[in-house]
């Protein structure tokens, strides 16, 4: 188990170690989602604890006001879809890649699921059923 901000290594080193060790786990933040390439069996599972809504800081509020064209919810949804699409894209990079993308947020609106490719099955399930389905899929 490797963790960003816990292990005394920079992100690139953590990713290199994770990529090389087939049975390892890497916990990371947004920096691990964006611009990281871990092909094949090295990455088979991506888990989001919650829907990646933008933080409502001053900069976000200003952008939302000026760029939302009167529909601020749509602006936030677009940001979330982009983040989910990027994370899913880390998992499935090539035609022969296989993996599971898990969003643990029960309140995630279905309208956000357009972030995923149309062929990707979307299943809403409890944690116990999800854990078993992941185990079955990856074995």
Structure report:
The protein has 139 residues and is mainly α. It has two domains: 36 residues, no CATH class; 102 residues, P-loop containing nucleotide triphosphate hydrolases (Rossmann fold). Helices cover 40% and strands 9% of the residues. The chain contains five helices and four strands. The longest helix has 20 residues.
Keywords for this entry:
139 residues, mainly alpha, Rossmann fold, two-stranded parallel ribbon, 4 strands
List the helices and strands and how they pair.
Elements: E1 2-3, H1 11-20, E2 26-27, H2 30-33, E3 45-48, H3 58-67, H4 72-91, E4 100-103, H5 127-138
Parallel strand pairs: 1-2, 3-4
Compose a concise summary of this entry.
With 139 residues, this protein is mostly helical. The chain is built from 5 helices and 4 strands, in the order βαβαβααβα.
Domains counted in the coordinates: how many? 2
C-alpha-based Rg, rounded: 16 Å
Per DSSP E runs of 2 or more residues, the count of β-strands stands at: 4
- Low-pLDDT ranges: none
> Proportion of β residues?
5-15%
Number of helices: 5
Helix content: 40-55%
The CATH homologous superfamily name of the largest domain equals P-loop containing nucleotide triphosphate hydrolases
Can you identify the CATH class of the largest domain? Alpha Beta
CATH architecture of the largest domain: 3-Layer(aba) Sandwich
Structural class assignment: mainly alpha
Q: Report mean pLDDT, rounded to a whole number.
A: 88
Please provide the ordered H/E string of secondary-structure elements.
EHEHEHHEH
The side-by-side strand order for the widest beta sheet comes to 1-2
Shape: globular
Query: Would you tell me which CATH topology of the largest domain applies?
Result: Rossmann fold
